[in-house]
Every structure is written in structure tokens, then in C-alpha cells.
Amino acid sequence: MRLKTPKVTIRGIEMGGTSPIVIQSMTNTDTADAKATATQCMELSDKGSEIVRITVNNEQAAKAVPKIRQLLDDSGYASLPLVGDFHFNGHKLLREYPKCAETLDKYRINPGNSDYGSTENKNFEEIIAIAMENDKPVRIGANWGSIDQRFLTEMMNKNAKMIKPKSDKEVIIDTLVESALRSAENGEKLGLKNNKIVLSVKMSVVPDVIAAYELLHQRMREHPYILHLGLTEAGSGMQGLIASSAALAVLLNKGIGDTIRISLTPKPGESRSREVEACKILLQSMGYRHFKPQVTSCPGCGRTESDFFQDLAQQVNRHIAKKMAEWKKKYPRVAEMKVAVMGCIVNGPGESKHADIAISLPGKMEAAIAPTYIQGKFHKNLTGEKIPEQFIKLLEKFVKSCYS
Ligand code: SF4
Question: Are residues 262 and 316 in the same domain?
């Protein structure tokens, strides 16, 4: 069961509690280039990112934040929350650029570097004071790549004196979780409300990130915080997609996580918004959210007339993608529709019965008829050359009659 965390509303987007799991992403433009950054924020939002984070790494970036907001507001994206990502100099930038502090909807800080090189917490305290003044939530994002080295050494030394010392990896995980929780506690002591704190403990290896979030989850059972999930430095392409999905799926399935980001390294020229698509597919395939109809298609095998089958599955997917904007306006519940495109009689009729609308194509040596099913019941056989066109027509009719 999902852990009941506090709830916060960020520019109209609810996060935590029983709210739907929120999708977020981060730009990779130079924030100082307000136009390029605003354009990428819009692209990410169009693809379904509900919150967008931008790095605020220097004075030029801090100065650009109000301009980015203005560009978003003027282009019809006034409801898109903007989060500022701060490291090392966040306290200084937020203090010296009050418009930036006021404009951002949330701050992300790193407990490993907000007071880098100091034994005091002055910078952290300053950021929390500015967040409270502006009524902004703060994500305390611990990351093993920038773990507080002084704190890690302290934990390692303590561990070395134990009768049964833990492995170095276990101590790193303990330190990461402890660092996030101590910062959250300090934030609360300074007056930041519990529902204004979001925590994350990112690592780059799947079993490690799972262990870190599980430990955090266990440690905060009595006093939960909103959780942001992500596998850091997941990589690019298939590797990043699969590693992130593996980590996030395990955690979400255990009821851990209120918001997710899949951090993918884009290939040169690849759109940044692929990571948003990945979040949507992950949440939909786990049944947490519905963004578009789910098309179930079998992988095909030696029994399929492979080109025909693959082509039909693609045509159905393309048709749904093309019609989705129009359908969503007319038939908001259509995103919950399940469509099955099956390759032969082996699993075809069985799988089709679990879908809202389905087609089972004839496999090799089977009679050249394609039975269709509507809401689990046999509807009619399609025959002839134009089976894909006939099925798409049937799909359109079904959407109109069932979801209007
Ligand atoms: S349903 Fe038929 S075509 Fe599809 S994978 Fe199974 S046996 Fe092969």
C-alpha cells in the first residue's frame, strides 16, 4: 500500500498524499538563454511533464528565471510549475536575486553541497529562510555522486568500530538516507512545514537505489515526507529506460514514491522529452495513470504472417496517436480503453476477451478471417484485403458509442 505522505500543491499540481504520481523532468538548455529554456519547458509540458526543473547555477541563470516565467505565461503555460535546481551557491543566488526566489515554484537543494567545505549549516539555513518567506516547498535531494564527504567519513569510522561492520556500499546508503533525513529535520526545526519538504536519495545502480529508498521509506514511517523517485545517471537509450523502469517499478509497487523522473541522457539531436514519454508508459503500464489507450499486441512468432500483423499493430498505434487530442476533448475517459491486436488463434481469442476492443488475425495455415471482440464478446469476423481499415472503422465507432 502506498505510504500516506503529506500533500503539497505546487502551482495547482498536487503532489503526495493520495494524489496521482506526478511526472517531472529537467531541461538541458543553458538557463541563461531564457528563450531556449522556455521553449524546452513548453516541449516537455506538451509531452506530459507536469513539473519542469531548470538549473540555476549562476547569476545569469538567476536573472533569466523571471523572463522564462514570463515567456511561459505569455505562451499559455501559466500553470506549469518551475523548479530551480541549486548547488553550492543556491543561498547566494536566492538572496541576491529575490525575483528569482519569488518566481520559482519550488527549490531543489543538495544536502551534500549546500554548505560545501563548511562545518556549519549557514547556507542551508539561509535557503530554508528564503523558502519560508516565499512560501515555497524545498526538495532535499541527496545524491551519492555528491554525498557529504565529511559525514561519510564520520559514518565510515563509526562503522569500522562495530563488531560486525557493514559493507562500504551499505554505509554509503545509510549516509545518504541519514543526510536527507537530518536535513529534513533541520528544515522543520527552522520552521519549514512537513508538507513543504520533498526528499530524494538518488543512486545510479538499480539494486542500490532500491535499497536506499526502501531504507528511507522504513525510517520515515512515523513521520513521512513526500518522495521524489529517480535513478540518477541512468544512461541513454534502452539501457537508461530499462534500468530506470526496473528501479522505479519495484519501488512504486511497494507503495514508495509520489513523483518520478526518468533521467535519460539524450543521444545527439534526440528530444529531451523522451524521458517524459518513458514516465507516462511506466505509470500507465503499472496501472497508476492513464494517458492514452493501451494497445496490447503479442510479439508475433513463426505462426504470424509477420508483415501484416506488425503493420496492423503499427496502424492502430498510429491512429490512436493521431486521434488522441481530439478524442481527449470529446471523450475524456478514452485513455482507459484497452485494445488488443493479436497474431493468431493461440492466445488471440483469450487475450481479446480482456480488452475493450480486439482483433485476432489469422496465423499461417489458419482460415483467412480475423475475429473481432468488443468488451470481451465476439463481435464479427473481418475478411478480405482491407482488414486494417475495417478494424480502425470499428474502433472509431466503438470509441464514439462507449466513451461519449
Ligand atoms: S498469439 Fe500466436 S502469433 Fe502471437 S506470439 Fe502467440 S502464438 Fe505467436
Answer: no
Can you give the pLDDT at residue 273?
A: 95
Residues 263, 355: one domain?
Answer: no
Considering only CA atoms, which residue is closest to atom 5 of ligand 1? 300
Whether 53 and 81 have beta carbons less than 8 Å apart is answered as no
Q: What's the confidence (pLDDT) of residue 110?
A: 93
Nearest CA to ligand 1 atom 2: 344
Domain final position from 226, 257, 285: 285
Q: What's the Cα-to-Cα distance from 89 to each of 116, 147, 329, 362, rounded to whole Å? A: 9, 16, 45, 64
Find the radius of gyration of the CA atoms of the chain. Answer: 25
Going by CA atoms, what residue is nearest to atom 1 of ligand 1?
Answer: 347
pLDDT at 343: 87
Give which of 250, 228, 264, 233 is closest to 21, Cα–Cα: 228
Residue 80 to residue 44: CA distance in whole angstroms: 10
C-alpha separations of 307 from 300, 303, 340, 381, 384 in Å = 10, 12, 17, 20, 16
The pTM (predicted TM-score) of the whole model is 0.92
Summarised one tens digit per residue, pLDDT across range 212-237 is 999 999 999 999 999 999 999 888 89
Q: Indicate whether 280 and 298 sit together in one domain.
A: no
Mapped onto helix, strand or coil, the DSSP state of residue 226 is strand
- Asked if residue 264 has its Cβ within 6 Å of ligand 1, the reply is no
Cell of 117: 567545505
**pLDDT, tens only, 380-397:** 999 988 899 999 999 999
C-alpha cell at 312: 496492423
Which of 160, 163, 164 is CA-nearest to residue 152? 160
- Closest alpha carbon to 83 in 58, 100, 63: 100
Number of alpha carbons in the 13 Å side-chain half-sphere of residue 45 = 20
CATH number at residue 19: 3.20.20.20
Q: Which domain holds residue 319?
A: 294-403
Does some domain include residue 279? yes
**Distance from Cα 324 to the centre of ligand 1, integer Å:** 28
Instruction: State the distance from the centre of ligand 1 to the C-alpha of 230, rounded, in angstroms.
Output: 35
| Side-chain half-sphere exposure of 90, counting CA atoms within 13 A | 34
Provide the CATH number for the domain around residue 320: 3.30.413.10
Q: Are residues 129 and 239 in the same domain?
A: yes
* Residue 304, ligand 1, Cβ within 6 A: yes
Sheet holding 377-382, edge to edge: 294-297, 338-342, 357-360, 370-374, 377-382
